[in-house]
User: Fold these one by one.
Assistant:
Number 1:
Amino acid sequence: MNQDNKGRLVIISGPSGAGKSTVVGRLLDECGLPLRLSVSATTRTPRPGEVDGVSYFFLTPEEFAKRQAAGDFLESKEVFGLGHWYGTLREQVATGLNQGDWVILEIDVQGALTILENEDFDPITLFIHPGGMDELENRLRSRRTETNEAISARLETAAAEMLYRHRYQFEIINGNVDNAVAEICQILNDQKENYPCSKS
Ligand SMILES: Nc1nc2c(ncn2[C@@H]2O[C@H](COP(=O)(O)OP(=O)(O)O)[C@@H](O)[C@H]2O)c(=O)[nH]1
Ligand SMILES: Nc1ncnc2c1ncn2[C@@H]1O[C@H](COP(=O)(O)OP(=O)(O)O)[C@@H](O)[C@H]1O
């Protein structure tokens, strides 16, 4: 799927609350590359303001299981141990790569490792974190989207995920959003030298 300059896969992981969505939103607008976000499917309920098909495809557990059985996912995982599933849709990735886009997967560590084991891809991998667990907790609490139970599960998972950051090519500390965005744009544009885009 990745031959003939037909786009690239970019994997971004990091603990919940690290600022992945914030940074990715900016990258899409500011990097000057044909980036697009792969919209994942999930069984979790939408937060206020999240739009089906834009933030995620929000599926019932039954719909999700059906799509798993049909082989529609490149990878799918239960994240945080709270019974909510998340999955990368093959179609999202294939469509983007075939159009020459750089397809961003904003996925957890388990999903990233599964894709790294898949030899069809040669992804650029980035791990984002805020530099400290206290700051992570502050961000999660001030986002006001999660219950205390969900915040605790996210913090526990965060500690485990941090242990995998060395499996990624690039570690980004998102202390200041502007700096993190600039650093990642620079990394991606440097990679372009190795893999010229068919689109730009
Ligand atoms: N493996 C996998 N993880 C995903 C996928 N989509 C989102 N995630 C991860 O699921 C976690 C939870 O996402 P979300 O419920 O939106 O909460 P947030 O990270 O606190 O904003 C994050 O670590 C995401 O990176 C996916 O398709 N596959
Ligand atoms: N560099 C930063 N400094 C301070 N707050 C940030 C920073 N980056 C993101 N945030 C805030 O932290 C919270 C979590 O960010 P979000 O992008 O939702 O994280 P993630 O997608 O990794 O779960 C949000 O309220 C966001 O506005």
Number 2:
Amino acid sequence: MTDKPAPLFDTLVIIGPGLIGSSILRRAHEDRRIARRLIACDISPEVRARVAELGIADEVAADPARAVRDADCVIICVPVGAIAMVAAQILPAMKKGAILSEVGSVKVTVMEAMAPLLAAYPDIAFVPAHPMAGTEFSGPDAGFATLFEDRWCLLTPPAGTPATALARVTTLWEMMGARVRDMTVEHHDRVCAIVSHLPHLLAFTICGTADDLADETRSEVLDFAASGFRDFTRIAASDPTMWRDIFLNNREALLDMLDRFIADAQAMGNAIRTGNEDVIVSRIKRGRAIRRSLIENRQA
Ligand SMILES: NC(=O)c1ccc[n+]([C@@H]2O[C@H](COP(=O)([O-])OP(=O)(O)OC[C@H]3O[C@@H](n4cnc5c(N)ncnc54)[C@H](O)[C@@H]3O)[C@@H](O)[C@H]2O)c1
Ligand SMILES: O=C(O)C(=O)C[C@]1(C(=O)O)C=C[C@@H](O)C=C1
């Protein structure tokens, strides 16, 4: 008889088991090679009760400092603006050698807020991660075990991160089904500004613009929304707290991408105004090519 190999972590703690946190829990609950013991901790009593009902964690806790005491790895899955506050609550309680991670959609400001906290705990390895996967839904009911399948997970380890900690977090995300890439926090925030944050800004804005139109036009928007507009409304349905935090924390990169977008949109407007078919057609062809390459890379 062969002994079963030890799981990647003995105790894995998820703080904030919403869409992302509960998806990690679901996957780890299905695949017990990831962790022997799963603990979920949330500030909301309703979320805690729901996670207990769903049965996706071995324990559900209210007090973050108590929840992390035995953890080998803690992943903070709360909105970007609350990550450092949660870290300040748990770092003093974590054991030496443990790994602290988070899944926030913005990295520069999180790293700036975390650096002074982490300086007091040199024995904790901090390995930020960002799974490029999600939906417009939030909360523990929205999660699913295959959310990260074939998606990218971007890691932004600070200089000096122990190689073993980085390797374990890489393995964790690979076991979640993701493909993993390391990058700097600055590069991460610029990439996400164009591929995720600007598209959401445009979606929220176009829905607002349509809604601001006269009553008669608004009814037409609703009547005929089973079209291109509908695709914008999906991401425009996303959580206000999460997106407020993303926009305010990735301010510079997002505003830079917005300026570039406005210039390009104006160029397209000019082409339409002057009847410049070549510019119009080449833009459309570029869009089609990008869509095709996403499909080929299994990202659409
Ligand atoms: N939704 C996405 O598509 C997506 C994708 C990748 C990364 N992210 C990032 O992941 C994080 C979580 O997003 P989500 O969509 O899972 O959010 P969510 O709203 O579904 O879940 C967040 C959970 O955190 C809890 N929470 C909030 N403040 C807390 C605190 N101080 N202490 C303990 N618990 C707290 C909430 O009660 C909630 O259960 C965010 O930082 C977001 O930017 C989101
Ligand atoms: O698919 C969606 O609904 C998402 O909004 C997911 C999405 C994205 O923009 O791609 C949103 C925010 C994240 O940080 C990562 C992924």
Number 3:
Amino acid sequence: MSPSPSNSNTNTNNKTNAAVLPLLPLRVLFPKSANARQRAILHEFASKNGLLHYSIGEAENKSRRIVLERPDEKEETRSGNNTVEIDEDENDGTSLSEPTDEYLCDIVRTHFQIDLKSFDEYDIVEKNDDEQKKNNKSRQTNASTSAVSITTISEWTTKTLHLLELERVEEIAQSLDALNTSTSKKKGQHKNALDGLKIVDARGGLLGQTIVTLEVSKRKMTEKDFAPPLPTHSFTPHDVVRLRPSNVKFEEMSTSNSELPQGVIYRIRDSSVELALDDVPEFLDVSPLRLEKLSNEQTHKKLVLAVQGLQHALASGYSLGKNILEIVFESASPRIIHCDNANAVRFHPFNENLDCSQKSAIQLCLDCVDVGIIHGPPGTGKTTAVVEYVSQEVARGNRVLVCSASNVAVDNVVERLSGVSIFRTATVSVDNKKKKGRRERKKKDLSVEIEILAVDDQSKTIVRYGHPARLAPAVLDASLDAYILRSDDSALAKECSEDSKKIRTRISKLDYRKKEDRAERNDLRRELRELAKEEKKRQKLAQAKTLEKASVICATLAGALSFALKNEEFDVVVVDEAAQALECAVLGVVMKGKKLVLAGDHLQLPPTVLSDEAAQKGLSTTLFERLVRNKRFGAKITTMLNTQYRMHEDIMVWSSDAMYDSKLIAAESVRFRKFEQFDKVLTLVDTTGEDDSFMENVGDDDDDSKSNLGEAEIVMQTIEKFLSDAYKILPNEIGVITPYSGQVSLLREMRAARAEENALFKDIEISTVDGFQGREKEAIIISTVRSNENNEVGFLSDARRMNVAVTRARKHVTLICNCETVSKDTFLAHLVQYFEENGELVSSAQLRL
Ligand SMILES: Nc1ncnc2c1ncn2[C@@H]1O[C@H](COP(=O)(O)OP(=O)(O)OP(=O)(O)O)[C@@H](O)[C@H]1O
């Protein structure tokens, strides 16, 4: 983005000149000579006051400057009108000198009419040049800049409740949008609704749930054997949905809405969707059916309650997690066990393959009394470290809550924990002499030299809490429902339920006109009430006993905030993938434990926030990032894992240099991991100079619906090449990633068409970057989509997004882009340059030959 020309309102150096500027919208370009500290403070000030803030220009040639913007209240657009450009020579006539803090305060006061009294209110240390350069390299979004902002808990609570409300309104708006779409409009399709479906299968077996499979109903009998692909949609597994007949409008069904089957998406394939429902729907044979996404009010309510609970907890005398909150809001410092040989590893690992950085990270987390952090760049074995850490805590007799934002991540931990010996068989203590006094010592003395494994004789249990449809089949056995079903109390509850059924049948046969029948009915009803009470009691008991016995409870963050876990207390709360979790959700579970351990990577994608305004104002800023970047103690409580086990060194080096201060190393086992068929691990396909109309990205500016037909064709050609006899790459080894959902839809349609000729195409996975986070493939093809005359790159320039896309690959990356367009962004220019220097350069024209 280039600075807009200044208008007449540029004379800001005169303090008396308080001309009232047009109120909305307003865009102020601050002096280029403002230093890093001043820019950071302005970012933070803007974030706190609801102003848009970003930087423009190049850091290298010192033309970088910060821009603060008051958007149009109605439109929320960056209209760029009323631009005020503060020229350098207005800074007391000394063009090259840094502006004074007072001068910048004046600019803020004059133009935004908000009183920024002094820059000293902000505890931000000026970065030196080197650090600044690195920062520019590993550039973050505005949210990252606001991550340094520390407020009081009451300010934070007020702000967060407001942001959660914005998010709720946006979620409802999107879901209503789907519900109100007329069934005939645009072939009945909408992102949040799928129409024209029919039930092709209904089966039981998921802990009492019914799994219903829906496909697009075929119109012509002549159509091929397989079902047509589902139209474009935004459904993902675990969404809460409602099913209803298509040809009845929503408004007309209002009387029976509550009876429409609601359930959870169990699985989604290209041409089918599976739902988990409590019961078999009545309209099993009706077609067409419509599936609608519902907003998840429950989660919102839980988050609001959690946020409100925090303030209360801090105000009260004692509450679990208070020590952690005080650190988060900076009224206390984190405590770490002091040990003479602090760097030595003082635990006996269950996993003998841990590398040095993993062991150090685990040791530090064991030593941290309040908060510990494991920073795990892609493929560095973050979850491996989490699993070992949890096992170590359990071995010390501690009870652990393990959470993550997503079900997949929780299941991953459960599966891996189940393989650790302590959870399978009884384990013997390492040092019996010291075992007895361990608890006593721990209370009094934080400088214990050697940690001791104090292991009970009983085997430890892991309980996975969550809706069965949201759990991976491999962990169903560990689910709370499965434990309950296996328990004696549950068997008794079932007997009660069966007896009740018999009694109801008997009641229905009684003739209430007969006196003796009436008397019997009254007796039977009394019995029914007793049975219902007993059934409930048994169910509750079964649940309580299961939870009580559990050494580790695993749940999503939303699950952990559920009523069922309300009274559960833990020694440690561990949050995996914490850099993708909403800060308020993490702080909610903090109140359940004495200690918090976070694992994640703030240099990969942040949590998804639907409301742009809420995201802009800080809802997508994570606690993980806030703590890692804390200048006072962030480094003390954080260990970064530095050895990656996923990708060839050539893929890793770009990410390491761009994002991780060149600190990553490739494990020997993966360092030279490549396809022998390729000369190079990296390929750059440059579309610059191709037919503009074919290669231009199309789609709205303000969303992710962009697509690029030309690039999509190149993706198909590349897949064809990989699958050919010359390369013989398996389809499930190939992943296609693109930042835009519009391009995903286009690519999926093209894949379906190609699959008719070559069935291998069916198994090629195509997804957005967000959809691929946490996953990996042998070969990754990236379609960047952006190609336009204005050289606009949009949200492609978020360093974290490209970091995730590239680091999904183990052996090969093909990057398809218009080098001219994307190179206008400094960060992407480095990426292109890296591929040029270290990979094979192919022009799209060459590829067609
Ligand atoms: N010390 C180790 N020695 C050998 N292999 C390891 C080691 N640690 C992790 N791995 C392997 O590296 C891979 C990635 O591990 P893990 O899933 O724990 O990483 P992660 O950091 O959580 O991954 P992601 O980047 O997807 O979040 C796994 O295949 C794991 O077995």
Number 4:
Amino acid sequence: MHIVTANEMYEIDRFAIENAGVDGTILMENAGRAIAEKVVSLVKKSEEILVLVGSGNNGGDGFVIAKTLLNQGYKPTVLQLAANEKIKGAALYHKQLFINYGGTIQQLQASDEITVFLNNTDVVIDAMLGIGITGTLRPPFDQVIKAVNEVDKLTISVDIPSGVPADEGVLDFIGIEADYTFVIEEPKMSVFLEHCTAYYGNWSVVKIGLPHQAYANQIKRNTWVEQKVRTTLPSRDAFSHKGSHGRGLIIGGSRQMPGSVAMTALASLRAGSGLITIATVKEAISSIAQQCLEATFLPLASQEGVISERQQIDISTYDAIAIGMGMGRKKDTGLLTRKIVAKAKVPVLIDADGLYHISEELSVITNRKSPTILTPHFGEMAMLLDTTIQNVIAHPFSLAESFSRKHGVYLVLKGPNTIVSDPEGNQWVNTTGNAGLAKGGSGDVLSGILLAMIMQRQKMTEALSNGCFIHGKAADNLVVKKHSEQDLLATDVIKGLASVFRTFS
Ligand SMILES: NC(=O)C1=CN([C@@H]2O[C@H](COP(=O)(O)OP(=O)(O)OC[C@H]3O[C@@H](n4cnc5c(N)ncnc54)[C@H](OP(=O)(O)O)[C@@H]3O)[C@@H](O)[C@H]2O)[C@@H](O)CC1
Ligand SMILES: [K+]
């Protein structure tokens, strides 16, 4: 699936109508019919349905849904929330068809009348506002949306829950809290925005027959789904040996935080790395070694329990490096981190405290010739950009894209909808994972999986997207069968990797 902005959707629509010659009324018919079919699968004929229609094409879809339901023996009540003269074009055409098919339309005389309509219905179909919303909600939509959210009725939104912005940038809005949203043709950006996702409820896409050429490489955002993992995840060659699957080096940890590198190493081995070496402060090695028998170790000199600057680390024999987890934010450790990142001629993944150290001097990553992968969560992204978390929440796609382009790096912006960005501005949104991953250690495990993926035969963006998918899928499988979102631990996810790899082998 592509992920589109409102403007990109309008452009695809324009191409379909102007270049491919599709009539706009047909697209609306297709949209309304496809959604009506979904409604039929959710709602009984005996139930009362209230269709709320606005003045634009979202409202037009509402008239088609009402007509289709009427034709199938349902008795929808259509409540028009705009003046008659506001309804034009394809929406007016379908309004007339609905009337011709025997439908009747009611209009809201005063905003507070909405409660009477809501009390008399079982189901609300929200076709008030779609991707054409601009600015703050105007009456009566603000009051109607609040009233719909207050009553406990099955609410089904058309294309987008009314009031929710399609694009990035708007944090403050009043929107329908839908139970289901049937998104027309492609998910809009806000489906994947942390502050908007919940409004959509259970969402899925209905296709309305827009020509494939309309997309013609225009849209650089996509979802990463199981089918993509199936077609890109390399299988293990029967004649391979441990050297064929990569020698990875993990640099991090401290006396206070020895567990993080252990989790990264274990996850990396479980995700298919051939050999893993942990470079960490020498005093932490004995405790880590007990948890991670398959790893080898590179003892590092320390100062007050953290990795010190004054030492040479031979990084020449590794295929990829992950650096930063559990290493702390001491200045000395930072100097060493930047030296290693600058010197390494292999892919380097930078996570956690490593991100703090490179945020002090971003030219270190910009100047690198080999791939650099950064794995910030929203707080770390704000730190890298020297901005607020609120700004990252409001603009995750555009900020990640511009950062990746500017510094020539791969970025894994971690959140409920993790976004992988490449230096050309392409983006993939992961579709697995659950709230159980919002815990300490999850990031360390993800870094380990990504380190393993980077060292297998796949394109960098595929490696990163597959890694995120597998990490989330392991957590999803675990909360279905053995655990809950409350009790799930990062170490459970490492064990759960087996269930995911078995389905892909
Ligand atoms: N993608 C496709 O190919 C297809 C897309 N289709 C559908 O079209 C939808 C997009 O339709 P659209 O462009 O007509 O915009 P839409 O969302 O109905 O709203 C526009 C109206 O909202 C109003 N309004 C605006 N801001 C407001 C505010 N703050 N507060 C209050 N009112 C406000 C504004 O009113 P006015 O400013 O004129 O008073 C205007 O009339 C799309 O989401 C999908 O459902 C399908 O039909 C099939 C093909
Ligand atoms: K809507």
